[in-house]
Design goal:
Number of helices: 6
Order of helices and strands: EHEHEHEHEHEEHEEE
Helix content: 25-40%
CATH architecture: 3-Layer(aba) Sandwich
Number of strands: 10
CATH topology: Rossmann fold
Mean pLDDT: 97
CATH class: Alpha Beta
Shape: globular
Strand order of the largest sheet: 3-2-1-4-5-6-7
Strand content: 25-35%
Bound molecules: 5-O-phosphono-beta-D-ribofuranosylamine
Structural class: alpha/beta
Largest sheet: 7 strands, mixed
Low-confidence stretches: none
């Protein structure tokens, strides 16, 4: 069975969706460990409740980003993961870290990439009066939120929406599409080749997989 390591910094609702999907057999893989850069991240507690090893690394204990990322990558590799899943991991990754897990690391970002990389995506969508917003699962490359998209989900933006309402609407979709994409990877259907994402050997478009 394939092994997954998940990185979190906060609430861990996407981690929970992945735990549930593994337990229910919707993902044919095992979450071997969860790591965080924040000891207080509730995601670590979710892992412990599911009997998954949960570890926090203290950023302050390391000289710089490179040293922290080397320690984190070494710790992750003790679990020999087939896939590293970033689930609300709010720390910029060094190029060395990204290269070490190239082709086997994915992220979920709350926007319809390439629109709105970075922070405060929901606020920007509201302020710009966008008709739709959403979320993207993508392979991680050295470009922040810039790797090839695998799958997106769209939600409407209503004129009276608060940021919290839009966050919640997007997260409902995240909890559907992230387990689905992880299941594709676990089943050997997903690959990154020459900077492009492939599903079942078919190249995916800029928006990722879209059903007709
Ligand atoms: C998600 O909305 C994800 O798109 C972003 O961070 C959030 C994490 O939420 N990268 P949670 O910790 O999974 O609840």
């Amino acid at each position: 069975m394939k092994r997954i390591v998940v990185l979190v910094s906060g609430e861990g609702s996407n981690l929970q969706a992945l735990i549930d999907a593994c337990q229910q057999g919707r993902i044919n893989a095992k979450i071997s460990a969860v790591f965080s850069n924040k000891a207080a991240a509730y995601g670590l507690e979710r892992a412990r409740l599911a009997d998954i090893p949960a570890h926090a690394l203290d950023v302050k204990a390391y000289e710089d980003r490179t040293a922290f990322d080397v320690a984190l990558a070494d710790a992750i590799e003790t679990f020999q993961p087939d896939l590293v899943v970033l689930a609300g991991y709010m720390r910029i990754l060094s190029a060395e870290f990204v290269q070490r897990f190239a082709g086997r690391m994915i992220n979920i970002h709350p926007s319809l990439l390439p629109k709105y990389p970075g922070l405060h995506t929901h606020r920007q969508a509201i302020e710009n009066q966008d008709a739709e917003h959403g979320t993207s699962v993508h392979f991680v490359t050295e470009q922040l939120d810039g790797g090839p998209v695998i799958l997106q989900a769209k939600v409407p933006v209503f004129a009276e929406d608060t940021e919290e309402e839009l966050v919640a609407r997007v997260q409902t979709q995240e909890h559907n599409i992230y387990p689905l994409v992880v299941s594709w990877f676990a089943d050997g259907r997903l690959a990154l080749q020459n900077g492009q994402a492939f599903l079942d050997n078919n190249p995916l478009s800029v928006q990722g997989y879209a059903e007709d």
